[in-house]
Specification:
Blueprint: E1 3-6, E2 12-14, E3 32-35, H1 61-75, H2 78-82, H3 84-103, H4 106-136, H5 144-169, H6 179-207
Antiparallel strand pairs: 1-2, 1-3
Helix pairs in contact: 3-4, 3-6, 4-5, 5-6
Bound molecules: zinc ion.
Zinc ion (ZN) is lined by residues 6, 8-9, 11, 22, 24-25, 27.
Length: 212
């Protein structure tokens, strides 16, 4: 039985032919390469990060900083760590807003606002670490899974900004019953969906290629 490795995400397929589409990252057939088993002790087929070629040319201070940051992001899995900010806090903020609306607890509304601001401020790091992993580990492949992640991230940033601005312009939007309040809550719900979608796809990429 031949083994085929997806060069985008590292998924291993067993069979005479590579699959038409990678079940993990949707890369097409042409992205698969045959894994040639080496004789001797089990050599791990999992593609580890290949070190970027060491350039002999002197780097500028900024380039050095970028290279170091990029290596640290990949080595220490900073993207999966950073995504806990939106994925953990945004659903909690929605719960706070619902408590405000249904149980008339305005303090929870303040907590939700601070939560949105905190998540918004963390987004540059979430996006930058995600971009680095996508470029370095997945070679910037534009398959459906990455399109969804990029789209969900854009929706997340825009909705956070919209909610924060709306709350700034109309401070009683959630504490006072109105139609606008339900629109505000609906947007917060869509926001939860967007961070959930990005997180789900990330989980699929990281865990989807593993055999349990
Ligand atoms: Zn793949």
């Amino acid at each position: 039985m031949k083994k085929w490795e997806c060069t985008v995400c590292g998924y291993i397929h067993e069979g005479e032919e590579p699959p038409d589409e990678c079940p993990v990252c949707s890369a097409d057939k042409s992205m698969f390469v045959e894994v040639v088993e080496k004789a001797g002790p089990e050599t791990a087929a999992t593609p580890e990060m290949t070190d970027p070629p060491q350039t002999a040319a002197p780097q500028t201070a900024m380039a050095k900083l970028y290279t170091t940051a990029s290596a640290l992001i990949l080595k220490h899995h900073l993207h999966p760590i950073m995504v806990h900010t939106p994925n953990g806090i945004v659903p909690m903020a929605l719960i706070f807003l619902l408590i405000t609306a249904f149980l008339d607890q305005p303090l929870f509304e303040t907590a939700a606002l601070y939560s949105f601001v905190f998540v918004f401020l963390s987004m540059p790091l979430v996006l930058f670490t995600g971009y680095e992993v996508w470029q370095k580990r997945y070679r910037g492949a534009m398959t459906s899974i990455f399109k969804i992640k990029i789209g969900a991230s854009a929706v997340t940033v825009l909705l956070l900004l919209a909610l924060i601005i709306w709350r700034a312009v109309q401070p009683d939007i959630v504490t006072t019953p109105s139609t606008g309040r339900w629109v505000f809550l609906a947007l917060a719900l869509i926001l939860v969906g967007a961070v959930g979608a990005a997180g789900h796809m990330g989980g699929k990429l990281v865990f989807g290629s593993r055999k349990n």
